[in-house]
Amino acid sequence: MTRDDNTPGQGPESDPEFGDNQNNHGASDPAGSGEQTPSHDPDGYQHGEGHNRGDGDVPKRYHRTSHPEDAPGGFNPGYGAGYPQGGYPQGGGDAGGPAYSGYEPYPGGGYQGYSPRDDAYTGYGQGTFGQYTGQDEGGTPLETTNGQVNIMRAVRFGFKAVFANPAVWILGTVLVGLLFILLSTLLGFLMFAIDPDAAMSNDPLSPANVILNLVTSVIIWAIAICVIRGALIETDGRRARIPEFFRPINVGQTALLLFIMTVVGLVVSTAIQGDAVEALSFDEGTGEFAVESAVFTRLLALLVISGLLGPLYSYWIYYTSDGRETAVGAVTHGVADAARNYPKLLLYSILSTVVIMIAVPLTLLLGLVIFMPVSVLISAHLYRQMSGGRVPVEHRAR
């Protein structure tokens, strides 16, 4: 409650009961002094000139009222303690006086102090490792990471998030997959109708294939941007809702980064595809396949190099999708963060590939419905870990 500083009839003379200018905000000016000594209340707010002042240099004297803060001993509920459930404390203007009951209790128990949202995280690098840094609205409490990845923690998070929100992640994956297959089929028929020879050729640089690859890439980019946005919301400690997937941020920089990565990937895949065709040839005379050892060795080397470089660039898109970096910043910081955690990220890349190669055929491709969203959520969590961002606090049974 705010004091009424304009109570009439209060002058500079001392109150015989309360002393010279006594109030709940701290010490007042010494009697007869010509300057105000600033004081601080328990919350650290400074009070001095301009606060509860009279017409001159001497502060107003504050007389006792029936307000709860004038109860004997002062009113000090403490930080965040709030008023008692029944409303204001009972007490009169004087000790032993009649109970003050002029106000109704506040709904819900009154003031409850600051919520964690008041100290919510507003940028990376705030706080220290393991420090509680607030939570998003209606979500799980978050903590700041230390830039080192914990693979198993990310894996647990990925599976938990998928099965905690199956309507979005499992059913959504099925719908997105069906939509992508439908669009790809329609584009294939369209290209075949326009230029049958080019559409049937294996030349990736033919006009029909260039257009088909470009349109397909744009569709994939749009899906990736939306899905990663949802994964980052889950990493913020709350369940993603369908409309939130379609409200991505920093789209321009993310699209630019995806375009660069697609062009580089197209060049590399073209080289690998060409070597694959040359490495394996069919001898019509003998009816057997012949392997060109030199070309095969080069192909194998390209595949190994691509696999080794994978952990260094696989997480760039998360930096831009999180609104944290530009396309260039995502490359520089993404490489630095991944290099610091390279052995663990490489191990995860290898093991996840092996698991998917085994599990997906055994489940007749149904495993993709689980592993695809799980892998995106794991990657989002790993990105937050390696970049020193916030992740949900993990509560594990002991």
UniProtKB/TrEMBL annotation:
Q: Which UniProt keywords apply?
A: Membrane, Transmembrane, Transmembrane helix
Compositionally biased tracts (Basic and acidic residues) = 38-70
Q: Does the keyword Cell inner membrane apply?
A: no
Originating species? Corynebacterium gallinarum
Q: Where is the composition biased (Gly residues)?
A: 75-96
Annotated protein name in UniProt: Uncharacterized protein
Q: Can the keyword Transmembrane be found in this entry's annotation?
A: yes
Give positions of region: Disordered: 1-101
User: TM segments?
Assistant: 162-190, 210-233, 254-274, 294-316, 345-378
